[in-house]
Amino acid sequence: xxxxxxxxxxxxxxxxxxxxxxxxxxxxxxxxxxxxxxxxxxxxxxxxxxxxxxxxxxxxxxxxxxxxxxxxxxxxxxxxxxxxxxxxxxxxxxxxxxxxxxxxxxxxxxxxxxxxxxxxxxxxxxxxxxxxxxxxxxxxxxxxxxxxxxxxxxxxxxxxxxxxxxxxxxxxxxxxxxxxxxxxxxxxxxxxxxxxxxxxxxxxxxxxxxxxxxxxxxxxxxxxxxxxxxxxxxxxxxxxxxxxxxxxxxxxxxxxxxxxxxxxxxxxxxxxxxxxxxxxxxxxxxxxxxxxxxxxxxxxxxxxxxxxxxxxxxxxxxxxxxxxxxxxxxxxxxxxxxxxxxxxxxxxxxxxxxxxxxxxxxxxxxxxxxxxxxxxxxxxxxxxxxxxxxxxxxxxxxxxxxxxxxxxxxxxxxxxxxxxxxxxxxxxxxxxxxxxxxxxxxxxxxxxxxxxxxxxxxxxxxxxxxxxxxxxxxxxxxxxxxx
Length: 483
Ligand SMILES: NC(=O)c1ccc[n+]([C@@H]2O[C@H](COP(=O)([O-])OP(=O)(O)OC[C@H]3O[C@@H](n4cnc5c(N)ncnc54)[C@H](OP(=O)(O)O)[C@@H]3O)[C@@H](O)[C@H]2O)c1
Description:
The protein is α/β, with parallel strands linked by helices. The chain is built from 15 helices and 18 strands.
């Protein structure tokens, strides 16, 4: 049951993911797709949009007609606004007619509609069933600060129990994000080094090549901090920093993630300014093409101080990580799309050799490449051939595509299957979302209390402003060059 079936997310991600699950033989039971939105569509129109979504956005080729027919076989469309009880009454009748066993509500709707939809589901008593399960998936963003996230929590919990709620952050559906846990907890050799005794610092980068495009209305109210930092960056941080869970199940994993979020040192008042660096892109060259600056994008006010680049220094104040800075950064209009987690290890206590590279002893670096070149790289020093001891930095490289071949499945495929199987490990729990917002809200408050008239700028197509290099340079460190 998709609320917002006519939208972009449904077309680009949800329908193709359902189709791929059918192709892969993962959905063996009959499926009924019910769509809900305002547009003047009917069942036939929804069917043809499903076909279009699969033809344009599905991964597997050629199109498997029998899988597609299964997806289009049982389709219903409810034309209604989210705040009209009549639409939900029709939904109730439809669910009763179809004699469904299980029901998944997917909120692919604007965030300001979540509370209303859930309220209406509750009014029609659709949230609980005696003969099967009912679950709800709620898209990001989940609130815009701690008070709004808590208000949404209160509304959602009036209708659903926590074990029915799946707050989605699609980053967790990515193979390589899940591989952070597998890499750490299924190999004996890395975990003993994964702490303050050996790690100098950690860098996590989420770089976007795209600009704000047509989404200025949303972006002006969000900025990098709400769009990427509160969710994707903090999720990557928790997986990197967490302790080993007592088991690989939803509560055990999320218990450990929450502890990391609670251990984040809150940055208050001026500390919020000293430990973050914000900037905005101006026009520049990207892939040889001139692109416009943020303030020239349609819908962006000329006096905007919304950050399109954010670097932050974060400390996890627990025994494992005390004193180890985590540098997180994300920006739009950077040279290319890239997500990576990098651990830089401490130097040897005393250097005995000549290094051929200009930077002195090249540090040992472990890079977990989340996208696009999924893999893991370990950099270390090796003796260059020759009669004298000259050391050069070299790399050991594991590439997903070379080793396993093919494209990794889309995040939504894994996540939808997990919801249907009742596995919430890769979804954010109530206390987790609130702990993340508590940290971010302290930053937002600090910024609000010390308003700026202008942000520093960086040219589109560069890796960010010079000030961001100085920001990390204050600690005698440098951003890893992703190139
Ligand atoms: N698109 C993505 O890649 C993406 C990624 C991550 C998260 N998300 C999240 O997913 C959600 C949906 O995003 P989207 O990009 O699909 O948005 P969208 O393209 O704007 O679609 C919104 C959907 O909600 C429906 N809708 C809006 N107001 C309505 C109302 N009052 N009554 C009934 N239907 C209404 C629209 O249908 P009608 O216009 O027909 O009424 C449309 O089907 C958002 O919360 C977004 O933050 C999206």
